Structure to design on (149 residues):
């Protein structure tokens, strides 16, 4: 098994654990290590996440794009260093935080809850999502949609 494949398998397993914790025994959990997507696109989480993403869509793209929106492109977000979209003019606050900020699920969860609490002075005009289950759902959607196709 090569290193990249092992990373994908590890990611898939990590997602499965998060989903199990989030949904208890009832939710459908599909850790498909054989595909890029470790998130079941038919799951209630994914569908809820797709709905919640409408709030982000005006400002962010999830796949590489020629066009820069109001916010940075989020392609390959999971495990990406903060402020890594070379074509985007980040705020000084986010640039300063970038050296010690990696977008893993735990950090993204805090960011989505309250961006200003993670990086004070950042310029993302978004108050946050207070419902933890909604954040889990949005993260499942983001994980699937920002991964390489
Ligand atoms: C009004 C526009 C706007 C909305 C709505 C918005 N964002 Fe942002 N987002 C930004 C901007 C601008 C930045 C860069 C902030 C900075 O440089 O301080 C950013 C940064 C980010 C980052 C860090 C990216 C990086 O490269 O480090 C993530 C992750 C993110 N947004 C996710 C989301 C998600 C998920 C939503 C929906 C819940 C959302 N954003 C809603 C404008 C927006």
């Amino acid at each position: 098994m090569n290193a990249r494949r092992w990373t994908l398998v590890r990611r898939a397993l990590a997602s499965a654990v998060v989903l199990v914790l989030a949904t208890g025994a009832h939710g459908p959990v599909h850790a498909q290590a054989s595909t890029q997507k470790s998130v079941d696109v038919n799951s209630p989480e994914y569908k809820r996440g797709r709905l919640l993403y409408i709030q982000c869509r005006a400002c962010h793209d999830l796949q590489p794009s020629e066009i820069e929106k109001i916010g940075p492109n989020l392609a390959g977000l999971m495990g990406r260093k903060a402020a890594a979209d070379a074509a985007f003019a980040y705020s000084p606050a986010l640039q300063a935080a970038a050296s010690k900020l990696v977008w893993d699920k735990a950090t993204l969860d805090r960011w989505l809850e309250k961006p200003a609490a993670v990086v004070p002075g950042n310029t993302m005009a978004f108050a946050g999502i207070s419902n933890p289950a909604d954040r889990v759902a949005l993260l499942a959607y983001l994980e699937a949609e920002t991964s390489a196709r």
